[in-house]
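ok trying this again, last paste got cut off
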Amino acid sequence: MMAVMRRRFASVCSPSLPEEGSGSLYDSTPISASDPDAEQNHPYASLLCCHRVQDSLLSSNSSFTKYRGILNWIIILLVLTHAHLFLENFIQHGFLIDVKKVLEHLIEDNCNWPSVNLILAANTFAVTALLLERSQEKGLLLLTSALRLHLTNLVLLLLFPAAVIIHEPTITTGGAFFSLWVYAALGMKLYSYQETNRWYRQAHLTVAETDRNVSAPQEGALNEHLTFKDLYYFLLAPTLCYQKDFPHTSRVRINKLLHRLLEMVIVIQIMVGIVQQWIEPIFQRSENSFSSMDITMKVEHLVGLAAPTHFLWLLFFFLSHSYLNFCAELLRFGDRHFYGDWWNATTLTSFWDNWNIPFQKWCHRHVYTRLVENNASPSQAKLLVFTMSAALFECMIALPLHSCRLWIFLMMVFELLVAVFLGNYFEGNYGNGLVWLCLLLGPPLAVTTYFHDHYIGSPQNQTSSSPQTLDQHLHSTVFLQPH
């Protein structure tokens, strides 16, 4: 018995250094350096030493990582806090959600839908790209001539929807947004289509020149992928980068299709509810645009809009997840790596690389790589790609709203400065917290300020100045008002 207690005393009060990487709370070193032999032989030796060198669990030096209980507490607190906000909103404004209003605003000019006609007209540019590729394969066009015609087709593709949105008064804001996003995706797809086919032709010519014994591929072998079926499969597939043979799954799973479809319906309903029930009442309390507000009023509105805007942004991500997987399942498209674990990103650069994999892959394949090949440094190429994406995002929001404030572009540039100058000071969990803070107060909030000023300047809002018409006007949706 005494021997056991001596061993226990020695193990507890030993002056040896702690083992590196020990995860136990009691595997630390004692304060004292030595103990008399009399104490080691004492009957209560195991009770004499009760202190050890150890860090507090929440200290930065501690290796403790089990924070699940704190996470559960934060989730419960957030649920209770926002439940109170929802209840207060319902008591103050009543039930404002009206899906019929959304459907009414989708109907443009008595069923004469300019946005639908605009999207149908996009087929002209797609067919033109296919005919140009076929002409090149048949030798009817030289490389330089075909490249000029492709670039002309792409420039017209970008200018045509902008001109229609600006000069067509009957197109709604929602229709303009949807049309512009379709044309932007089509433009990137057709650019990838023509450049990838050019790479294929160059690869065939290189093989033929390298090995004279290998016969050149027959014209039919090169033209077999230049079909309407192949082109429109690529245009409908959830990717921006073209290749001849996409990976496919074995079959279409109907249960997965229905699951994704149900997800999209539910998420859209929640987004409409947040806009009508939470965001529009905040817009209604505004009398001036953000550009004419004083600083205190700006801060008050931005703080009030931060939470619902962030929820909308997260729901938009989930809607994109459901839509892309729905298209992939319907077309049996195998590559479904649409995003990485951006929520664990410890730097803004890591977030940008994982937030939108199809767009990031297109930028790397067709912009970044080409810039580096033309003697641009990697840092310069990354800066140009980021500037291009920021300008594109600004145009995608500003053009349908007929307002260019550069708020989104400047906010993304500010995030770039944060990533450059503060990235080295915020690492690990602190870096992840900085990423979430930038997402909460960054470009999504800038997008909402655009819609706020569009709502304030709309004719419907200007005419509803009396208290009696204020509650009635709350039922209209800001995102689908005609210009």
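PB: full thing came through this time. The chain has a mean pLDDT of 80.
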